[in-house]
Automatic annotation (TrEMBL):
Annotated protein name in UniProt: GreA/GreB family elongation factor
Gene Ontology terms describing biological process: regulation of DNA-templated transcription elongation
Keywords (A to Z) from UniProt: Elongation factor, Protein biosynthesis
GO MF: DNA binding; translation elongation factor activity
Gene3D superfamilies: Transcription elongation factor, GreA/GreB, C-terminal domain
């Protein structure tokens, strides 16, 4: 698996998400400012609701724009066995039940999933408990995290 390919797929997905979010924000803005949504009495809240939706859509556009900018500015470096896992690493992780997954440690865009040669890759960030726990780890290392009171153990199987 090539981390440059994964990185490009992440950027493509973020660009697509941004386009969709911008169109949704424009539609919500148009609905909020349309003359038919002007309140006729104090109980007519359609315009107010539309403006809340427009504001939320605008925030979502900014979040995606920020994630895209951070990921575009990410310089991919080869895995350094002296430093360990850093942002930009593509890694294989196995849980205590033997379930293996691929993760890409990015500056933003957590939860995004891409597929490379039939293999799903999930984007995580250093702000997550797992991402924070992975920083500085090495291939073959084990780590333990606690999420919502549940202890989880993982082994790093491969790093690129």
């Amino acid at each position: 698996m090539n981390k440059h390919t994964v990185h490009q797929l992440i950027l493509d997905n973020l660009r697509g998400d941004l386009d969709i979010a911008q169109r949704a924000a424009q539609t919500a803005y148009e609905a909020a400012t349309h003359e038919e949504n002007i309140a006729e009495n104090k109980y007519d809240t359609l315009g107010l609701e539309a403006s809340y939706l427009a504001a939320g859509q605008a925030r979502r556009v900014e979040e995606i724009r920020q994630a895209l900018a951070l990921c575009q500015n990410l310089t991919l470096r080869p895995y350094d066995e002296q430093v360990g896992i850093q942002v930009g690493a593509l890694l294989g992780l196995e849980d205590e039940n033997g379930h293996e997954q691929w993760l890409f440690l990015a500056p933003d865009g957590a939860g995004l999933k891409v597929e490379v040669v039939g293999q799903p890759v999930t984007v995580i960030t250093p702000r997550s408990p797992l991402g924070k726990g992975l920083l500085g780890k090495f291939e073959g290392d084990e780590l333990e995290i606690v999420v919502a009171g549940t202890r989880q153990q993982f082994a790093v199987t491969e790093v690129k």
